[in-house]
Every structure is written in structure tokens, then in C-alpha cells.
């Protein structure tokens, strides 16, 4: 799941460090794909650092439940097939595109149906002190934190997740993600076709997308 989908499960918490922990694995991956940390089995004497660890563990649980669900298998496969005409001559792998497109559509639906607030998400991040984050990262084994903080400050400043509320930005966001792996993933014509496909599929998902959140929510409470 993407940033905002992870936030959904803790949208009512007052603990900013826990919220940060729920998205930190993806923030680190975006900052540098070579950063690999496994703090989920660690325990710290500082409560705020432990809150980050607990959030991190919840991130892993949510992703595991999501990726093993029938919802993910069915929906990502449908999107993959629908997007194939837009991938003729593109280096992008169809499964990758279907997977990421589904997560972006879900984030868009959470925003456009008023299930979460992007401003609330960024408020939580702003409430976390950098020295606590750095202490967590070093405790988890990352000695050089400069690359992460450079990305993280830009992420907070740009607040680009607000654009996820615009349905026609889904295809653009998908392109930007693909550009991290492939230099020129799509032609302008392919982008137009993707936008049409994704907008139509979003409408088809509108009435039942919350089923996956309900399903995961039940599993989280039974752990």
C-alpha cells in the first residue's frame, strides 16, 4: 500500500512517531532503494523511538495482508490487462504497472471520498523531531542519514500527496514512479491512454474499495 493507505489505519492517532513509522519503510525506499533496515525485532528505551518501531511493524503487517488478499490479486491483474494497450513498446513491466496503479487509485479514492486528510498526514510528520528520527535510523543500523533527510525534507516541503486527490494526476504519478527505474517509460500518447483507463477503473472501484480496508482492519485487530 502507498503512504495514504497506510495512514488510514492510524488516522485518529495522536502519536506522530507511530504515524511516521507506518510510512518510514517507503520513505527510506524512495530516498535510496539500497537502504535496507530490519528494526522490527528491536526495542529501545526511548518511548518515541519505540513508537516508530511499532509503526514500522504495522506497516509490514498491512503490506503483508494487502499483498496476500484476493482483492489485490484480482484488482492488480485486471489493471494489468487493461493497461496492456498502453504499454506497447514500453519497457515497463505490466505486473509492476498494475500493482502501483492500484495503490495510487486507492489513495485517490481515500482522498476524494473524504476518508482521510492529507493535511493531517503532513501535520504528523511535521510534529516529529529530526533528532528522534536520526536516533531511530542509527539504532536500526543506518550510519549515514544524510541521503534520507535530504529526501525527507523535500517530501515534506513539496506535499505532493495533495495531488493524489486529482484523478487525472494518477497517470502522472505513475509515470514519475516508473521514471525511477526506466528513463523514458511512456510516450505522451501512452500517458493519455493510461489516464483514460485509470479514470474509468477508478469509477468502477468507487463503491467497493473500502472492502480491503475493512478486511485488513479485522486482521490487524486479531493479531
UniProtKB/TrEMBL annotation:
It comes from the Bacteria. This is DUF479 domain-containing protein. It comes from Mucilaginibacter celer.
Amino acid at each position: 500500500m502507498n503512504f495514504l493507505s497506510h495512514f488510514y489505519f492510524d488516522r485518529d492517532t495522536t502519536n506522530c512517531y507511530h504515524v511516521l513509522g507506518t510510512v518510514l519503510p517507503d520513505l527510506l525506499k524512495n530516498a535510496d532503494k539500497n537502504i535496507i533496515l530490519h528494526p522490527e525485532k528491536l526495542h529501545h528505551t526511548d518511548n518515541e523511538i519505540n513508537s516508530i518501531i511499532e509503526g514500522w511493524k504495522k506497516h509490514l503487517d498491512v503490506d503483508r495482508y494487502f499483498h496476500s488478499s484476493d482483492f489485490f490479486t484480482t484488482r492488480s491483474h485486471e489493471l494489468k490487462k487493461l493497461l496492456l494497450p498502453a504499454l506497447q513498446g514500453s519497457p515497463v513491466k505490466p505486473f509492476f504497472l498494475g500493482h502501483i496503479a492500484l495503490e495510487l487509485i486507492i489513495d485517490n479514492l481515500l482522498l476524494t471520498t473524504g476518508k482521510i486528510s492529507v493535511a493531517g498526514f503532513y501535520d504528523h510528520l511535521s510534529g516529529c523531531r529530526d533528532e528522534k528520527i536520526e536516533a531511530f535510523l542509527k539504532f536500526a543500523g543506518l550510519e549515514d542519514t544524510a541521503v534520507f533527510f535530504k529526501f525527507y525534507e523535500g517530501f515534506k516541503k513539496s506535499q505532493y500527496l495533495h495531488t493524489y486527490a486529482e484523478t487525472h494526476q494518477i497517470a502522472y504519478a505513475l509515470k514519475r514512479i516508473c521514471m525511477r527505474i526506466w528513463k523514458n517509460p511512456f510516450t505522451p500518447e501512452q500517458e493519455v491512454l493510461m489516464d483514460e483507463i485509470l479514470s474509468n477503473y477508478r469509477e468502477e472501484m468507487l463503491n467497493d474499495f473500502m472492502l480491503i480496508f475493512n478486511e485488513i482492519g479485522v486482521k490487524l485487530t486479531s493479531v
